[in-house]
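Design a sequence for this backbone.
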């Protein structure tokens, strides 16, 4: 059984009684223990009369009390909890079920006397429990025995309504079966809920009646409060905590209504401070006789609000809402503490501060106790710790007020921020009772110790809750305290460390204030202006410019002079730093950007007059030497733009910056830098996006588009030009030098999940360079002239698991023009690993010949041009095997489109049986785009050879022509047939460029395909395994004769008529030539043939289906008869031949079936059936004459 609750009456009572003889027997303690073992009751489903939902009471504490100990008092006029009286009364009967005589003579009268007593009690239920032994159950009588049992008599005598209140339990000492009392427990649940619902309905009616009488004379709020609180206490005792909390919330709302009307006649004064009221635990309901004070109408508003808060918080704690407890107390201390200021004159000095301080700490202590008693979900722990941190911060704020008034703290932020209202001197002669505060008021060191301890407790709670910003703010107050106490070194350490924590949270004003305090503390300590001081100053200037804000700057009267002195001091300190940077020379490859630098720092200026009408202003410049801008692209790609300067004037300055890295694309502004001597001022633009809508442009990233430099060094990748399936995969790197005469270039390749074997790199066959080196991690090329293209192939690990792989190429190169400058650039390229073509093969066995049909399709939307396709035997050759192509020799180049594949036929003749070695399918191809780009490149070079001054436009012209063809695909069909390339019309503003385009398009229009494929082609070699086939069956139906024709064996085909029976022979010839094993030809197989039913054309008569034994090169003949059902020209029926399972051979758990292919010898033949003709003679009578 659960422990007794603290509040009296907050429990469910169940009374019990039994005959005195049974109560005094040794069996009763055992029965009592067995009943108590069923408690507490669990999973009770309760439905409110005002709500449709069903609430489940997980656990209900029930206390068994003897009926004799309850006093039958008259109903009190003072409302109490509904649980003060038992909700159910139990009478225990120990009478065997068959002992009817004892029941009539003794038990019935005892039960009747008890029943007459408890049945008259209001809102109480009753229950009769019969205990019997297992061996003493009533024997089963015959059909005519109607005496019944004791349980039947109990139900008949006392169940006056439809509800059954009698329970029988079969029990013996030592029986621990939990199901023995299950029915009794369920009856007890029903009885408790029934009695409780009746009591609640009656009490709700009383509350409703009292609430409706508010406007009537004599109505008393305190009486109404006690009445409604009894309902809340009853819900709490029944573990219906949400309903109890609702009652207290409604009481609080009623009090606010009374307070708003200023009708406080039912209360005493607003506050009548007792000796210890400022230090008593806030949430204790036993520190004062609150109920008696409420009934006497003498309770103060101060005590009443505290009592109501304490009851609400206790219910919230039982529910598990400890975070709501801290939030509610925090709000209460803030609002009610403000109201106490109106009564400050009548209170002891520091009473309000002592009360808020003591209350906050006592609530933290009480919540820690509740955590050990009630369950708190782990997800709610951060909010709970944050609430405790807010309470501790309230306590710390009271120390700020006490310290300011006692002179322990200075009248400046952050201490003066807590003093928003000037306190008035108290006229009361009392004293506060909190010993800690009394000691802190008199002893400065004790105050500082208490201040630091309370602040650290709040910081610890905020840290556990994950509220770093609040913890950091309190750290700042500790630094201010160290500064006030003369602990300058400690204060400087804190001031310099805090801004780094404020910056991520965008607390710019607070960050600026801390940095300003750090600078002042640094000056007070007279420390040298070293690198640390410069870092502090730069951070301060950054926040000053960002916030435009001098909201918390302490030097308001001389801001201009203050900032100017700091800038000058920074210049002097930076000049003494060691040189850590070098100047970049403008290179050939690269790009430019235009930037605007805005100097918001105030500058000192003087005026000079050179004439009466003209004034010259000499401004003091920011002593800057260089402006840098860093842009960030994809895959950690960064560009650094530089421009040397000679100072920055106030306001806006336009500059042009250069970057030597020839990259292009969309980039994000990452950082901007200004160098002052050896000092680097950096502003990082990558900030976290603010939560919620914002209209500030500073919240959006700055995007910069860098156009492509067509004459810069460029690297591309593609699939290898020579692919052989089954061998190591390779990719080809194409290097284009552009305008650069490269003296040395190093290329490193990397890709996720792929390893490259650079040491096995092979240079392209058509490309040569003076020197080529392949190391373990890089490929080095030496001496590549300008406008040169070089390619090399790099083997790599298997990439078949990827549809595409993203390859990063890190390139370092130097040029002959500037050998001292090494340029670094990163290229990110995507290579599709799937082949551009797919090949499907279909095989047809015809005796000793195998015909293979290869279908070549494109795997993308691009067109593929195929110059040749051959099926090759191994280099050593195959004995007895010949391979011939079935395609025309003058076929030329074939174009494969997404909707039109290409077919290639090959005939393989084998005299020695199956071919056991693999063949190779060789395909020579390239993409249509590659062919067209190569043609355009060739024609552009031919035109530019006549215009040497326009050579630098070559790359641009090729790009323009390719883009024009990409926009309009109408040229594709014409080019595929004739080779004529019709370029859509293009207009250029530059007349010279336009003339060049006209010449080039004319040459392209006059182009024709050559008879033999030319240009650069790709090759792919695919291994092909020749298939096996156990049985090749050739089926043929041959017409032999028709009726009325001589069977002389003449070769002349007979004439066929519809409806005429036609004699035919079905011949099936079998061959084991392509079998998988050498001894295949000596085997025999059981076969089955089936002549296809063609019910529209033929009627087949004879053995249409049958089995036969097949041998190598054997023939099976079957005569059949065909009847044409109508005239016309149509094919003969088809024949299917299948192999039957081979007995004794098992494959995959079932009988093995040999592979079989059947072809129709007569499949291409058709017969002509004529309509049936004839003559009939009819005799017609012409009359008697």
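Sequence:
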């Amino acid at each position: 059984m659960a422990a007794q609750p603290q509040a009296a009456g907050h429990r469910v009572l169940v009374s019990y009684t039994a005959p005195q003889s049974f109560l005094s027997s040794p069996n009763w303690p055992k029965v009592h223990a067995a009943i108590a073992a069923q408690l507490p009751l669990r999973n009770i489903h309760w439905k409110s009369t005002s709500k449709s939902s069903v609430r489940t009471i997980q656990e209900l504490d029930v206390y068994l009390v003897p009926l004799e100990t309850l006093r039958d008092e008259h109903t009190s006029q003072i409302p109490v909890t509904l649980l003060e009286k038992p909700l159910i009364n139990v009478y225990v009967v120990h009478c065997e079920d068959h002992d009817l005589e004892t029941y009539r003579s003794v038990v019935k009268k005892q039960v009747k006397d008890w029943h007459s007593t408890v049945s008259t009690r209001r809102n109480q239920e009753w229950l009769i429990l019969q205990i019997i032994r297992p061996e003493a159950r009533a024997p089963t009588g015959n059909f005519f025995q109607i005496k019944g049992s004791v349980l039947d008599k109990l139900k008949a005598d006392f169940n006056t309504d439809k509800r059954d209140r009698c329970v029988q339990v079969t029990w013996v000492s030592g029986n621990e079966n939990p199901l023995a009392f299950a029915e009794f427990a369920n009856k007890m649940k029903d009885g408790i809920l029934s009695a409780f619902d009746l009591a609640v309905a009656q009490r709700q009616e009383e509350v409703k009646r009292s609430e409706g009488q508010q406007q009537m004379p004599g109505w008393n709020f305190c009486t109404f409060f006690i009445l409604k609180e009894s309902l809340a206490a009853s819900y709490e005792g029944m573990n219906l905590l949400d309903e109890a909390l609702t009652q207290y919330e409604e009481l609080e709302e009623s009090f606010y209504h009374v307070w708003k009307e200023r009708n406080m006649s039912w209360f005493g004064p607003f506050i009548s401070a007792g000796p210890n009221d400022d230090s008593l635990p806030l949430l204790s309901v036993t520190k004062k006789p609150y109920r008696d004070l409420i009934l006497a109408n003498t309770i103060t508003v101060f005590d009443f609000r505290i009592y109501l808060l304490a009851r609400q918080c206790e219910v919230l704690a039982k529910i598990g809402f400890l975070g709501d407890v801290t939030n509610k107390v925090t709000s209460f201390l803030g609002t009610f503490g403000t109201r106490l200021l109106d009564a400050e004159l009548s209170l002891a000095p520091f009473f309000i501060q002592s009360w808020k301080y003591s209350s906050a700490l006592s609530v933290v202590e009480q919540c820690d106790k509740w955590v050990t008693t009630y369950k708190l979900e782990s997800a709610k722990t951060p909010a709970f710790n944050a609430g405790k941190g807010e309470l501790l911060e309230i306590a710390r704020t009271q120390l700020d007020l006490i310290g300011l008034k006692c002179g322990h703290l200075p009248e400046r932020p952050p201490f003066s921020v807590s003093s928003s209202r000037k306190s008035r001197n108290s006229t009361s002669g009392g004293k506060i009772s909190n010993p800690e505060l009394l000691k802190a008021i008199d002893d400065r060191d004790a105050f500082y110790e208490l201040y630091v301890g309370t602040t650290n407790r709040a910081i610890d709670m905020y840290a556990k809750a994950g509220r770093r910003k609040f913890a950091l703010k309190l750290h700042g107050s500790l630094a201010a305290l160290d500064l006030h106490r003369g602990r300058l070194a400690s204060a400087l350490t804190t001031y310099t460390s805090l801004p780094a924590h404020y910056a991520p949270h965008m607390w710019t004003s607070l960050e600026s204030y801390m940095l300003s305090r750090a600078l002042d503390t640094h000056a007070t300590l007279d420390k040298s202006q070293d690198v640390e001081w410069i870092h502090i100053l730069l951070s301060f200037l950054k926040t000053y410019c960002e916030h435009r804000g001098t909201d918390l700057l302490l030097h308001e009267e001389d801001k201009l002079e203050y900032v100017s002195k700091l800038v000058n001091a920074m210049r002097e300190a930076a000049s003494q730093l060691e040189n850590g940077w070098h100047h970049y020379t403008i290179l050939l490859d690269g790009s430019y950007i235009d930037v605007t630098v805005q100097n918001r720092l105030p500058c000192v200026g003087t005026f000079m007059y050179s004439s009466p009408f003209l004034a010259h202003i000499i401004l003091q410049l920011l002593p800057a030497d260089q402006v840098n801008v860093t842009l960030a692209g994809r895959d950690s790609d960064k560009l650094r733009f530089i421009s040397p300067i000679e100072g920055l004037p106030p306001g806006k300055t336009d500059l042009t910056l250069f970057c030597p890295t020839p990259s292009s694309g969309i980039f994000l502004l990452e950082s901007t830098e200004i160098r002052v001597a050896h000092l680097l001022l950096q502003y990082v633009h990558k900030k976290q996006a603010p939560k919620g809508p914002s209209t500030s442009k500073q919240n959006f990233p700055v995007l910069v588009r860098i156009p492509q430099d067509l004459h810069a060094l460029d690297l591309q990748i593609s699939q290898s030009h020579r692919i052989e399936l089954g061998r190591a995969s390779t990719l080809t790197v194409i290097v284009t030098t552009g305008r650069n005469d490269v003296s040395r270039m190093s290329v490193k390749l990397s890709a996720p999940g792929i390893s490259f074997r650079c040491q096995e790199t092979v240079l392209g066959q058509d490309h040569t360079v003076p020197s080529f080196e392949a190391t373990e991690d890089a490929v080095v090329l030496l001496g590549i002239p300008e406008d040169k293209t070089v390619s090399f192939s790099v083997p790599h690990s298997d990439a078949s698991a990827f549809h595409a792989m993203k390859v990063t190429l890190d390139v370092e190169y130097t040029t002959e023009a500037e050998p001292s400058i090494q340029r670094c650039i990163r290229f990110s390229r995507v290579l599709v690993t799937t082949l551009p073509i797919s090949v499907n093969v279909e095989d047809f066995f015809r005796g000793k010949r195998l015909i293979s049909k290869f279908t070549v399709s494109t795997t993308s939307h691009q067109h593929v041009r195929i110059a040749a396709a051959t099926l090759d035997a191994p280099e050593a050759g195959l004995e007895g095997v010949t391979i011939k192509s079935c395609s025309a020799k003058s076929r030329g180049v074939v174009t494969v489109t997404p909707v039109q594949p290409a077919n290639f036929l090959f005939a393989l003749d084998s005299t020695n049986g199956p071919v056991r070695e693999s063949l190779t399918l060789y395909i020579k191809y390239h993409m249509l785009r590659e062919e067209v780009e190569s043609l355009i490149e060739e024609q552009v070079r031919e035109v530019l050879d006549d215009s040497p001054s326009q050579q630098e436009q070559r790359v641009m012209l090729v790009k323009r022509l390719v883009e024009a063809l990409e926009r309009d695909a109408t040229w594709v069909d014409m080019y595929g047939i004739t080779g004529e390339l019709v370029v859509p019309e293009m207009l250029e503003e530059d007349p010279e460029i336009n003339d060049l385009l006209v010449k080039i398009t004319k040459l392209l229009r006059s182009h024709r395909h050559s008879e033999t494929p030319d240009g650069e082609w790709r090759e792919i070699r695919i291994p092909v395994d020749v298939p096996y086939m156990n049985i090749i069956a050739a089926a043929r139906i041959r017409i032999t004769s028709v009726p009325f024709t001589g069977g002389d064996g003449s070769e002349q085909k007979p004439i066929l008529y519809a409806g005429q029976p036609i004699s035919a022979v079905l011949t099936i010839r079998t061959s084991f030539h392509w079998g998988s094993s050498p001894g295949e030809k000596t085997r025999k197989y059981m076969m089955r043939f089936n002549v296809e039913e063609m019910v529209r054309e033929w009627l087949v008569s004879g053995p249409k289906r049958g089995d036969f034994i097949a041998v190598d090169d054997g023939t099976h003949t079957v005569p059949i008869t065909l009847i044409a059902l109508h005239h016309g020209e149509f094919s003969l029926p088809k024949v299917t031949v299948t192999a039957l399972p081979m007995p004794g051979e098992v494959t995959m758990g079932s009988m093995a079936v040999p592979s079989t292919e059947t072809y129709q010898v007569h499949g291409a033949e058709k017969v002509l059936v004529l309509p049936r003709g004839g003559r009939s003679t009819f005799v017609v009578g012409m009359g008697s004459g």
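The mean pLDDT is 80.
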